[in-house]
Amino acid sequence: MSSQLPILPSTPPAPAAPAGADPSFVKGKYCFISLGCPKNLVDSERMLGLLQLDGYKLVNTPEEADFAVVNTCGFIEAARAESFGAIDEMLALKRRGDLRGVIVSGCLAERQQEALLVERPDIDHLVGVFGREHVTKVADRLLGGLEEQRNIFQPAPTHPLPDTARLRITPKHFAFLKISEGCDRLCTFCAIPKMRGKHATKPIEEVVAEARELAADGVRELVIVAQDTTYYGKDLYGEPRLVELLRELEKVEGLDWVRLMYLYPMYFTDELIDVIAGSQRIVPYLDMPLQHINDTMLRRMQRRVKRAETEELLGKLRSKIPNLVMRTTFITGFPGETDEQFNELVDFVAEQKFERAGVFTYSLEPDTPAAKLPDHVPTEVMDERREILMAVQQEIAFEWNERQQGRELDVLIDSAVPGERDVWIGRSYADAPDVDGIVYVTGKGLATGKIAPCEIVASKEYDLVGALSGKPR
């Protein structure tokens, strides 16, 4: 097996089954590969929970399993290549006799549907994004040798699917919470609405109930995810209701940190800013993908925001939220991007000094409007521009890290450093799981899931080094 494939769980061991599962009854054994974004991870955890409740046992390696489930990403070409690699590796094991079957689920299955079976006929079953609730029936069919129906695709629901009774594969102390499904944005480069459907808000009471369930299971950091977080509630209540949701989440006992991801610049009201600034649980960290700043590029992307509005919003956020850390993403080489427009983006990044930023080259998606735009940028130019922008951002990030030396920060401990004594890996409020840097912490009495007050004593590129300065809690 390739070490790059995230066969889950690997470390830590398989978590306990959701309430209601009979641990003595085993229908069959399976391994699971989860790819893509945190929203897809929540889908994976829901399918894992359903399989566990139905009597299927999760194992660590395909060699121990009867079948494999690959929950795929289909967002851009690089993600599809990773998904195909995982599928092909599982199919090779099937042909070798190590697996009885392979189930492919998620966004790639939803996007390609029957074409995926034509291209890879050895796949036993396909489960679309909204067919995930039927994964146990699919597993039953596979082990029962039933082949007359090899796929389950459901229309996008008007009400988001439940994400309760998940078998979580994140560490016990943090979890992702999906507050809505789908997206009403029609950004010209993006195929997500084709795969995930229109925006559908999960009602406030359901989100809060899930948050309480997760807190009761030991979650200290709750990471809020959606395709468009600030749009939350618009379809269900007639107006955005993120403010009301956050006020309810503030009341959930057991949560220490609430982290907001995927915030679109629209619908970011002064009231929302005040709620974030005044919260005891919402950390001053905001993930707001901007993609570009030149007005012509923003129009071609159909982002429905302008540079002046974005700069005004960023100014408000910086002035009202103390110690704010901003994460964003940008695309280089979007069709029609000129040197002048790219240089405007570089200057903007240098001026704004985002603490965290990712840069991606434009990915041509055949079923999106951007694919039909004129003046596509050569690959080598896209790559060169990405390197230039990342170099600017790297300098900003390293300088910010250097300024943290001497500062006192709370660090949530994620794991021990293998082979080291009293050395741990954690994250501060400034670091979202899997996408940002880490904090190495030295000190006695620490454990996974503890929050450790630390003095930052050094920086190491994107990471920090801290020494325990108080009692962990």
UniProtKB/TrEMBL annotation:
Is Transferase a UniProt keyword of this protein? Answer: yes
What are the GO BP annotations of this UniProt entry? tRNA modification
Alphabetically, the GO molecular function entries are: 4 iron, 4 sulfur cluster binding; aspartic acid methylthiotransferase activity; metal ion binding; protein methylthiotransferase activity
Q: Which SMART domains does the protein's record reference?
A: Elp3
The chemistry this enzyme catalyses reads:
L-aspartate(89)-[ribosomal protein uS12]-hydrogen + (sulfur carrier)-SH + AH2 + 2 S-adenosyl-L-methionine = 3-methylsulfanyl-L-aspartate(89)-[ribosomal protein uS12]-hydrogen + (sulfur carrier)-H + 5'-deoxyadenosine + L-methionine + A + S-adenosyl-L-homocysteine + 2 H(+)
Q: What does the entry's cofactor note say about binding and number?
A: Binds 2 [4Fe-4S] clusters. One cluster is coordinated with 3 cysteines and an exchangeable S-adenosyl-L-methionine.
Q: What does this protein do?
A: Catalyzes the methylthiolation of an aspartic acid residue of ribosomal protein uS12.
| Family indicated by similarity | Belongs to the methylthiotransferase family. RimO subfamily.
**Entry protein name:** Ribosomal protein uS12 methylthiotransferase RimO
The organism encoding this protein is Lacipirellula parvula
